[in-house]
Structures are given as C-alpha cells and as structure tokens.
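Note to self: keep these together.
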Amino acid sequence: SAATGGQSITHPVNKHKPWIETSYHGVITENMDTVLLDPPLVALDKDAPVPYAGEICAFKIYGQDVPFEAVVLNRTSGEGVLRASSSVDCEIQKEYTFIIQAYDCGAGPSGADWKKSHKAVVHIQVDDVNEFSPVFREPLYKASVIEGKIYDSILQVEAWDQDCSPQYSQICNYEIVTAGTPFAIDRNGNIRNTERLSYDKQQSYKIMVTAFDCGQKRAKEDVAVHIDVKPICKPGWQGWNKRVDYEPGTGSKQLFPKMHLETCGGPLSGVRAMVELQTNHIGKGCDRETYSEKSLQKLCGAASGSTDLLPAPSPSTNWTASLLTDSGRDSDLIYRFDGRQAANVPDHVVPQNLTDQFTVATWMKHGPSPGLRAEKETLLCNSDKTEMNRHHYSLYVHNCRLVFLLRRDFTQVDTFRPAEFHWKLEQICDKEWHYYVINVEFPAVTLFVDGVTYEPYLVTDDWPIHTSKIDTQLTVGACWQGGEVATPRFTQYFHGSLSGLTIRPGRIETQKVISCLQACKEGLDINSLESLAKDIKFHFNPAQSVLVVEGEDVDSINTAMTKVSYINSRQFPTPGLRRLHITTTVQCFGEDTCLSIPDIKAVVMVLPPSEPRITITGSNRLVRPASDLQGPLGVAPFKELHITSTVMKGDSFATCTAYLVMHNLDYCDILVIGEELNPERESLEIHHNALLGKHLDATNSTSGISIYGVDSMAHYEQALRQVRYKNWRPATLSDRRFRLTCSELNGRYTSNEFNLEVSFVLHHSAPVEHVNHMAAQSQYMRPVHHPLMIHTFNSHMSGTAPPAATVVIVVCIAALVVIVVIGVYRIHTTHQEGSREDEDEVKDPEVDWDNSALTITVNPMEALDGGVKEENREEEEDEEDEEQVGGMTSAESDNSDEDEEEEEEREEVKKRKQRGKLEWDSSSITY
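Structure:
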C-alpha cells in the first residue's frame, strides 16, 4: 500500500528454503536402476501453497563420478526418487556416499530467486547378484602318496568367486565328481584317502573336483587332480620286461639288459639268483634237431647197427600203425601209451645176437602211477611166445623206479647171476621228457639220464634161464603173456610217452655220443664273461636250462644278470613261448636270509622263422637208346639234377626278391611209379663209392631208393646224380617213371615232387630231354633280385598279394617273355651258322628228329656272342663235365668214381660219332 495515495503493487516473495532430511540411506541391486531410500526422498517448503515459492523444482547431487540422479515426481508434494544414471556394479564399487540438495521453483515462472535446502548426506549400498561361478586357482593339481598309508590331507584345492558379497563370493562346498574313488574332500578343499592304497593294484588316480559358492552356484569347469601312488621300498628286481622277442638266427640275445635288484639299502653279505628256462612243452623237452633217430645217431657218431623199435608207421614197419602218435609237435615222432596200446615187434626185426655188451636207449615222459600199489609198466619186454611166461629181458617202471631185467641163458655154471637192476630217480615220474640210455657190460649195467651217469641202488640176483625151443616175443608198451593163461594177451601196460626206442647189440655207447643225442639247441648263456666281476660265480646244468649266479656285491650281481642271454642255434627253431622263472635269495650279515625277493616270471617269444622252400629242378624226360641201359653203367637219370632252397625275407611284395639259403637235408626218396622194379631184368642202385666222404647212407628195394643222413644239399645233389638205372631186357618196357622228394628236419620241410620219365628206344635216335622252366641257381648264399625268382613266393602269399604286387608280377612275366624271345632268336641265328658247316655231314636217312619234346632254357645273363662255332661246342661238352658242382669242381671232390663213369660215357659218345650216327648229348649244351 502506498501512504501517499499512489497505486500499491503486491509481489510474491520466496521467503523460505526447502527442507529435507539431514541423511538418507539407500539400497540398489546391481545392474538395476531403482534406489530404495530410507527415509523416502521428500522436500517440504513453508511457502506452500504459494505457487513456485512453495513448490519443489529439483534435487541436485554433488559428488565426483556419482552414477545417480534424483528426479522430482510431484512439485507440489515435494516427492522425489533417486535412480541410477548408469549401470551400477557391485564388483566395481559396493557403496556410494554423496550430497543432495532440494531446490524450490523460485519467486516466479522464470525460476528467479530460487532457494536451496541444506545439504543432506546420502549413503547407498549396492546389493550383489550371484552372477559369477567359482573358478579354481590352478588348472591341474598333482600330489603323490606312499602306499599303505591313510592321510588327513593329501592336498588342498582352492576356488574363488568374483561376486562382491560374502554370500556369493565365498566357496561353501567342494565335491568329488568322479565316482568310485577311494578319496573324500571337505568344505575347505582338503582331499584325503578313505582306504589304504596299493601300488601293485593301481599306480595313479585321476579324479575330477567341482566347487559351489554360498549361493549354490557350481563351477563352470571341474578341475583334475592327479594322485600318484608311490610304492614303499620293496626289495625285488626292477627294470625287466615280461616278454622278450627272439628273432631266429640272431644268436645270443640279452634277456634283462636293464635289470637291477632293489634292496632298500640293507647291508648284504651275498645274493644267489637262479634263472630257469622252462621248455618242457616243446617236443621232447627243448628245441632239438628233429631229425630221425638214425640221422641223429649218424650226426653224433654213434655206432651203426641199432634197431629202431618205434619207427614211423609204413608198409615195411607196420607194427607201430595201431599205436597212438602225437605227431603235432614239430615232426618229433612221439608215441603215447594210455594203458591199452602195445605192439609186437616182428621176429625179423628183433636183434638176435645180444651178447654181454649192448645198449637200450629211449626218450620217456612219465608221471606218477595211479593207485597205492601200482602195476608194473613195461616199456620193452622179451618173453616166451607160448607155453611159459618167462621174461628174458625187459625194461619197466614200478612205483617211480626204473628196473632193467636181464635173465641170462643157462651155461656150464648154474649159479645166481645179477638179474634185476633198480634205479630210484625223481625224473622217472616228473612228467617231463628225459633221455634214458642203459649200457650193459654184463655183469655191470649203467644208466644215463640226460647224459648223467647213475649206478643202480639195488641189484638182485636170479637163476639163469634154462634153454628151450620156445620162441620169444619182443613187445613195446606191455609184456606178452603167451603161457599160463587160457588166452595169450598183453599185460603190465605202460602209461606215458616214448620216442626213439632203440637196441644196439654188441656195442655200448660212449658218454660223448649220449650227450650229443640228447643235447638241446636252445638254452641260457652268459655274454662277455670277461666283463664279470671276480667275485661272481655261476653254474649251468648240463642242458643249460638252469643258471645259478652267486655274488657278494649287489652291483656285481646286477651286471651279471644283465648278461644273461637266450640262444637258439637251430636254423629253423620251433616258434612259440619259453617261460622264464627267476628265484632269488639274499643273505645278510649274521642272518641266514634277511630279505624276501619276489620270484620273476617272464617269457621268451621265439618268432616264426622264415620257412625254406626246397626246389628240385632238372630234366623231366630222358630219352636214351636201349643199348645205354644194357651197358655196365646203365644211365644216370638224375645227372642234370639241381637242389636249391629259398626263403622269403621281410621285403615288400614289390621287389620280386628271394634269398638262397644253405641248409642240410636229411633224406631224399626216389620212388618207382607204376610197377615195381623186376630184379630179373632191371635195377636202380647207387654205388657205395658215391657216399664216401659224406654223412649219407642208402637203402634200396624194388620200390625205389632212400638216401638218408644229415648232409648238405650239394652232397645230396652229387649222390643223386650218381644213381644208376639199368635194364638188361629193355624190349619188355618202353619207359620208366620215377618220383623224387627231399626233406629237411624229418619232413618238417619237404621239396616239390620231381617227376622224371626215362624212355628208351630200340633204334638209334637223338636222345632228347625235357628241361624244367626254372634255371638252377648257384649254391652260394646271396640275395637274388631277378624276375625268374617270383615263383619262390609262398602260395598263400601270392594269393593275397596287393594290387601293387600284381602289377610287378605282370612286369616280371613280361620281362621273362622278352628274354625268351631274344634267346629263341639267338638260337635260330646260331643254328643257321652251325647247320651250314654240318650240312654235308648230316645226310643219313636213319636220322630221326623228335622236335616235339625239345624245350630250351635260356640264360638271359649270358653275353651275346654271335660267333659261336660248332667246333667250340664239342670242346664245351668236355669242359662242362668239369664244371663246378655245389661250389667245387668234381676234380676237387672225392667222387673219383663219378669222373671215371663220365670218362667212359664220353668215350662212348665219340665212338658213336665216328660211326656217323647223329647222337647229340643235349644235356651238356648250353645256349
């Protein structure tokens, strides 16, 4: 109002400041924007309800990097709200404190003259969300424990969580995920074992562990924990392999090159180790040369004249046909007697002249007899055939004792004589093979078992047997009871296995020969003896299947054991496993034995050898004038024979490669095909001189010739080439056919069947030979890289050859065809040159050519030489007879008989040429 009477104007006045609380507490959940404030955000103004002055227009926040804003919800009531202006993350900041002030709307619409409240403190806590999973601090945990011990804590695993709150950041629980493990884990991550662990049972464990935070959120990735079980120090051998592979032909091989004995630091005074090679499952107890008994006796230098009472069944040795044989063991001929089999030996086989000196030998495998009072088990028995039941001599087993009975015939003095000789030995009933030899030098009788001498522990006397006219019967596997019973029968049957049962009259065998006959080709060995310590002692048993090593120092014993080796000297050993057994005793000072060393069981695996393929080649057909057959020498049907042997080594199929090998044969049989020989008009024989200087013998009959003995292929070749066929009445026959086969290791490897036809013509015609397709190879051992050798692949190999091999085979055959074509062309040109010179001579109408059977083997390695003259060929004929056979010339060999026969043949050829008859001996012409 105006006192002077002028107009009075009234302006609204903003008298009061807004009012808010002095402090606020708020809570916000991370990643959300709403803040819950206590108390609520409300500003009051005493100017209300005056517009503007009594209204609240804003809340302002003061603070550095504060991610909040305050918004007025109702200007009149002054209500406001606090919210996040950007994302709030508890893991970055858990709490915020800042200042807030309220502003009124001023004096008017322009907002001028606004007033602000006092400053209030706002304290906001950020609530956590369980957004993170636990994470382990290590990617892998490792620990080791000693077996047999229970641990409180083997190791501790630890996980952590990025969440900010104690609830969600703390790890509340750990858990083993892997089922069935002998471990447990507590809340703090400590892992312990729940049972005693064994190194032998399991050497390491891998378990998976997970973790949970207190919000029960599980770790995204489990962690692996590796726990190794360490053995407590156990005395024993370490560093050896359970299996050792042995390649045939590699000589001596160390069995335990890294073996050493762990003694856990104890003071020792001595160590004794026994290594045993167990081969009782192989043939006759170990890898021996499986030749026939006769071949072995010849090899070992035994006296001749022994009688084999258990030969292989054949038409001439049929008394063993009914016996049970176990021929599946690498060609060893083993007879198995089960108490029901026995055989009578024919009278013509029985040695009749047993004197004061003779030898009985056999291989035997025998186990304990059934029952308390066992029956006698007869191996060999010579008893009365009829009327009486007297045993003249016999060999039998009774209650694990070996007894040899020998009743002498009555002579001038009728007195007691030694008659029964008893031996009591473990070997008789141990179910393993042993070689028994009984040497009789009456009245002394000595037994050899595996080459070791044993005297009888008991000798009983008896009266001599009075002479009678009763025939005796020799039996094997039981005893013949011909008298004192209603029906003659076998009694006292043998239970066990026998092989190589022989009697040699008139001679006793030397210990050297006996040892050779039973010697193993495989056994234990010690390499480089000079490197062994001086205090080492070692001892082998006779068969070298047991080795005992003794020493005072562990290091010396370790060195010695690494030298222990296995050796197999057979060229073609029996494949399969041989068991090894090592027993060890350790002595300490002042004690007998102080450490227990576990036994070792291992095996030697002998790998299959490369099998040889024995091939016989030569002329398949021989045409000779009848006059040759009637001559004093007859003809030599196998004069052009060659024997080779090849093996396939580990080369790929694509090489067409075989290797010639040198090894021995043990028999070659020439069999007459068709009618047997008629002794009145023909003979097939080999002169004794052809076998001189060789380890060979021969037997012949009307069905053929058998040459036997362990000797080289070259010696067999030389002997076979000197076999002669004669026929002094050739008009009765037109041809003869023979079949030849050879064998190594008593039939384990056999050659092809080589068939030869000998034809004889009564008029003078050109003798013609058919020649096998394969060129004979040199006897020297060397690899042959040549397409012609492709036939030496085993048939089962070639049947499964891969496509690459098929291509190579085709290429090889193509090369062969080209070589043959070149050879035929050379023959044609050479023949033309030669025919010009001989044209005038060859005009006899009696000449009869038989071209139909002519086959020519071409030597592709021969240098091309077109200037070969017919005169030179005659010289070559003479020179070729002097060519080397099996690596030595016939002049160097001791076959002087062969030279004389060939000289006579050459003289006869010259005489026929002088008579003007064309009779080429094409066997000696080489194109």
